[in-house]
From TrEMBL:
<keyword id="KW-0812">Transmembrane</keyword>
<feature type="transmembrane region" description="Helical">
    <location>
        <begin position="169"/>
        <end position="187"/>
    </location>
</feature>
<keyword id="KW-1133">Transmembrane helix</keyword>
<feature type="transmembrane region" description="Helical">
    <location>
        <begin position="46"/>
        <end position="69"/>
    </location>
</feature>
<protein>
    <submittedName>
        <fullName>Paraquat-inducible membrane protein A</fullName>
    </submittedName>
</protein>
<keyword id="KW-0472">Membrane</keyword>
<dbReference type="Pfam" id="PF04403">
    <property type="entry name" value="PqiA"/>
</dbReference>
<feature type="transmembrane region" description="Helical">
    <location>
        <begin position="145"/>
        <end position="163"/>
    </location>
</feature>
<dbReference type="InterPro" id="IPR007498">
    <property type="entry name" value="PqiA-like"/>
</dbReference>
């Protein structure tokens, strides 16, 4: 069988191999084995990704600076934002930790949103991709495993259960912004089809 590897598309979840074709408007191709979206309709899905990325960026900014949780015990209470917590590490030898925390849970997710908007905004409007679109999209893809907003929320939930016995913990608006953010990221991912995006970037 003579097949050009460029014509093949592998499912990102289960590695099933398919022959890629351009679909008519409004059609999407999903993996028969696991249901992952392989090829999505172009302009409309790009616009969805741009919209979700923009929403995510605004939620992220709220999630960083609004109070995340308030701890009170014996009449004393203290509330803190994520930015405040990271800055608490910013003195002395532990300073690199503040930098690491902020870059993994804040800077990287924001960068990924910006990169996706940069890549898809012209494409969603039916214009050719901007100059550095290929580099930006590759960076966004490669940094995905390092963007840890979801893991942070799970870690926080575990810590809250442990703290619950010692003090009264109440959740601030930033916690809920983070929860919505995770849903927005999942929705955004359901519209991203790497094949469709690369195909659109290359067809200048
Ligand atoms: Zn699959």
């Amino acid at each position: 069988m003579n097949v050009d590897p460029a014509d093949l598309i592998a499912c990102p979840q289960c590695d099933a191999l398919y022959r890629a074709t351009h679909l008519p408007d409004g059609k999407r191709a999903t993996c028969v084995r696991c249901g992952t979206v392989l090829i999505s309709p172009r302009e409309r899905s790009f616009l969805h990704v741009v919209a979700f990325s923009f929403t995510g960026m605004i939620l992220m900014i709220g999630a960083i600076f609004f109070p995340f949780l308030e701890i009170s015990t014996r009449g004393l209470s203290h509330e803190s934002s994520i930015f405040g917590v990271a800055m608490a590490f910013s003195d002395g030898w532990i300073a690199p930790l503040a930098f690491f925390v902020l870059s993994m849970i804040v800077a990287l997710p924001i960068f990924r949103f910006v990169a996706l908007i940069y890549t898809l905004w012209p494409l969603a409007n039916g214009k050719p991709a901007w100059k550095h679109a290929a580099t930006m999209f590759r960076l966004a893809e490669e940094s995905q495993p390092w963007a840890m907003a979801e893991i942070f929320i799970i870690g926080t939930a575990v810590a809250l259960v442990k703290l619950g016995g010692l003090a009264k913990v109440s959740l601030g608006p930033a916690f809920w912004a983070f929860c919505v953010l995770i849903i927005v990221i999942a929705l955004k991912n359901s519209f991203v089809s790497k094949w469709t995006i690369w195909d659109a970037i290359e067809r200048k």
